[in-house]
Amino acid sequence: MIEQRDAGPPPRRGRFVGAGRRTNAWLRWVLIGSFLTGWLSFAAGGGLPATLTQIAHAVFGLGVIVLAPWKTALVRRVRRTRPTGVILVVLVVLCLVGGFWQLAVGWRPVAGISAIQIHVGAALIGAVLLIWHVVRHRRQRLRRSDASRRALLRGTTALAGVGVGYVVLTAIAQVTGGRNRRPTATGSRAIETEQIPATSWLFDTIEDLDPGTHRLVVAGSSYSVADLTARAGSVTARLDCTSGWYADAEWSGVRLSALIDADLLASARSLTVTSVTGYTRSFPVAQADALWLAVARGGVPMTRGTGAPVRLVAPGRRGFWWVKWVASVELSSTPSWLQLPFPPQ
Ligand SMILES: Nc1nc2c(c(=O)[nH]1)N[C@H]1C(S)=C(S)[C@@H](COP(=O)(O)O)O[C@H]1N2
Ligand SMILES: [Mo]
Of 178, 194, 39, which is closest to residue 106 (Cα–Cα)? Predict the structure, then answer.
C-alpha cells in the first residue's frame, strides 16, 4: 500500500519520509518488544503467564513480518547498504526461521544445534547490531502528522494481518509435530522421559561425581547421597527446558523443608542452591516445601550428564532452575529476586 502511494516521483518526497519514519519507529518497537517478551517467556514457568508471554511474543514476531514489505521499500531507496544492515537482515530472518521451526516442528536438533539456539543466538547478536544501527542513523522523531487517518488505517490493517497470522500459526502448531506432541503454554513439546538430554544452560561443564563419597551441605548440615536416598519420597514433575522440550518424570528425592530446621528457614528470606560447577539459583524460603533434592529419576540413579548424584527438582519452574550436581543449599537474608534473572554460565 505504502509503496504504491509513496514510491512516486521525487516531489512527493516529504510524504515518503513520513512513511519511512513511521515504519522505522514501528519496526524499532516491534523488535524491542520481541526481544523483551522472548526473555519473559523464558522466565514464565507455565500456565497463564506463559500463555500471555507466548501470545505477546508471537504478535511481535508477526509484526516484524508484517512490516517487512514497508521496510524493504525503504531499504530499496538507500544508495549504499552497509554490511551491518545486511547482517542485521540475515539475523532477523534466521531468528524468525528458528522461531517458526520450533513452533511447527518442536525440538529436533540438527548437528547438536536446536532451533531455539539459533533463534536466541540470532536475537542476541541482532540486538547488539540493532542498537548500533539505530544509534548510527539520525534519530527520527515521530511528528503529530504521523498520526493521520491514513496512518491509522494502515496500522489497523497491519494489526489485522498480525491477528490472522496468529490464528494460522496456532493452527499449524496444533497439527504438526506428531501425535500427543502439541506444544504446552510455554511452547515446548513432549519428549519421552528416557530421551531427556544432558542439557546445559550455556557453557557449564559436565561433572563426574562419585555417589559414594559426594557430600552436600544443606543449611550447615552435611549429607551423603545415601542419607538422602534413605529419606527419599517421590514427586512427579515436568522438566521443561527453554530449548523447547519437556518431559514428565517421577523423581525420588527429599523436600528441602525436610532438611532444614523450621526456625532457621523462618529467619531467612531465600535459599541458594549451588552446583559443584558454581552454577547457582536462589528461591524464596516459602518454596522450601516444593523444592526437592533428587537422587533418582524413574527409579534409577541419574546419569552423570543429567545431574548425578544429586540435582534439584523445581516443579513449575523452567529447566534452568533445576540445578544439577548440587554441592550446597544455603540460607540467606537477601531476597531471591535480587539475583540475575538467568544464570550467567
Ligand atoms: N549445574 C547446572 N545445572 C543445570 C544446568 C547447567 O548448565 N548447569 N542446566 C539447566 C537447564 S537449562 C536444564 S533444561 C536442566 C536440564 O536437565 P537435564 O540435563 O536432566 O536435561 O538442567 C538445569 N541445571
Ligand atoms: Mo534448559
Answer: 178
